Amino acid sequence: MAKRTISDLRSDELRGRRALVRVDFNVPLDGTCITDDTRIRAAIPTIKALIAGGARVVLLSHLGRPKAKVDPQYSLAPVAAHLAKLLNAPVHFCAETDSDTAVAATQSLEDGEVIVMENTRFLPGEEKNDEALSKAFARLGDFYVNDAFGTAHRAHSSTAGVAAFLRPAVAGLLMQKELDYLGHALEKPKRPFIAILGGSKISGKIDVIEALLPKVDGILIGGAMACTFFEAMEFETGESLVEDDRVEMAEDLIERAGFRLTLPHDAMVAPSIEEASSAHAVKRDAIPEDEAMLDIGPDSAASYARAILTAKTIVWNGPMGVFEKPPLDAGTMAVARAMAEATAKGATTIVGGGDSAAAVEQAGLSNQMSHVSTGGGASLEFLEGKKLPGVECLDEQER
User: Fold this and answer.
1) Active-site option among 16, 54, 112, 377
2) Is residue 1 part of a domain?
3) What is the reported pLDDT for 54?
4) Coil, helix or strand for 217?
5) I want to staple 43 with a disulfide (CB 3.0 to 4.6 A). Which of 23, 77, 123, 277 is the partner?
6) Rounded distance, CA 108 to CA 110, Å?
7) Is residue 390 part of a domain?
């Protein structure tokens, strides 16, 4: 069932009313300098739409892990200042979040004004989804908007609990975009539909593989997680990362998936990540005892690129190797370039946040994907078919 969004709200539900918006402003900071403002920029369309509707915009977010106490290095004050530059308009900041002072600050806003409240994780009840805190947050708005897909898999006071006490509760434009792309890919994909799954551990992706197997035409496996499959095939894996307790599971998956599961044909190996410059390609059944697989090999990269270019829907989650350390980025970059080419040919390409999103950004290809998710963990759980608390709490769209 689709969720209501800010686009479904009438003008009288917006103008002069306080929109309590949960955003994801958990951005990297160097002191008070924001080193990557991607997440702030992603929230701008929702903020601007609410401003245009005459709403009074109250923004809630967490930042870092301050361990449920006030920690100045995690203050959202620098984020508020940066947002003001992006909006080219004044942005107020309130150093409190769950007090009468905070409520008064939101009530003093004029139509179209914006205020950023202090870090929700300064408060002990936030990550416990404390009911009293949820009620305190509800006092800050007249309706609730969740635009923080990146935290939608967490049942916290500001992401889910507050919606029990503040209605309407609707999705922002970013949340809507995430749900539209990921939901459509799973429910009505154009075919062929392939998934590319990488990363270090099969344990982190096992539920995704299980959920996607009945839906996709093929799954391409990369990253160190491929080595657990190699172990199941009784290949030498040398010093590679292998999850011994998942080998039997990998064997079962290979058997059940059949031709739909594609493993790398070759691997880039080296004694260690620190010795990346000595990396060389070997066949997957010829990994030396004293070396580790650190990327898919060139034959696999070329084969995966060809497969991507035959597909109409592609979902990618997890890098093919240690992409932060050239030349071990070659496999991941080959996938990113093929995804961009597939997009240009009309395919729907979805990058599932986290390291995959970072890799696409590193390649300078983010704007050549249909959609780059802002939530690594949330997109994974969505692909697994799990219900996300931050989505489930929102109003259903009227038929």
Assistant:
1) 377
2) no
3) 96
4) coil
5) 23
6) 7
7) no
The answer to whether the CB of 227 falls within 8 A of the CB of 237 is yes
Q: Which two tokens stand for residue 278?
A: 């000595």
Regarding whether 210 and 337 lie in a shared domain, the answer is yes
Answer whether 0.70 is exceeded by the pTM.
Answer: yes
DSSP H or E stretch at residue 43: helix 38-52
Active-site entry in 125, 331, 354, 376? 354
318 is catalytic: no
CATH code assigned at 124: 3.40.50.1260
The CA–CA distances, whole Å, from 87 to 20, 55, 113, 297, 350 equal: 18, 15, 11, 45, 28
290 and 344: one domain? yes
Residues 207 and 334 in one domain: yes
48: annotated active-site residue: no
- Give yes or no: 39 in active site: yes
User: Is 377 designated active site?
Assistant: yes
Residue indicated by tokens 């160097």:
30
Beta strands 114-117 and 56-60 are: parallel
N residues, the chain:
399
Alpha-carbon distance of 269 to 197, in angstroms, equals 20
244 burial type by CB count under 10 A (0-12 exposed, 13-18 middle, 19+ buried): exposed
* Both tokens assigned to 397: 């769209």
Domain span holding position 278: 189-383
Annotated catalytic residue, options 17, 39, 139, 205: 39
* Residue-level pLDDT at 101: 96
Name the residue among 358, 299, 292 with its Cα closest to residue 323: 358
Q: What would the two tokens of residue 66 be? A: 């301050």
Residue 244 vs residues 159, 200, 232, 249, 273: alpha-carbon distances, Å: 37, 13, 9, 10, 21
The C-alpha atoms of residue 383 and residue 379 are separated, in whole angstroms, by 6
Q: Do 164 and 235 share a domain, yes or no? A: no
Task: Say if residue 257 is in the same domain as residue 165.
Answer: no
Q: How many helices (H) and strands (E) does the chain have?
A: 14, 17
Last residue of a domain, one of 176, 206, 234: 176
* Overall domain count for the chain: 2
Give pLDDT tens digits for 339-379: 999 999 999 999 986 788 888 888 899 899 998 888 777 88
Q: Which of 135, 201, 260, 325 is catalytic?
A: 201
265 with 327, same domain? yes
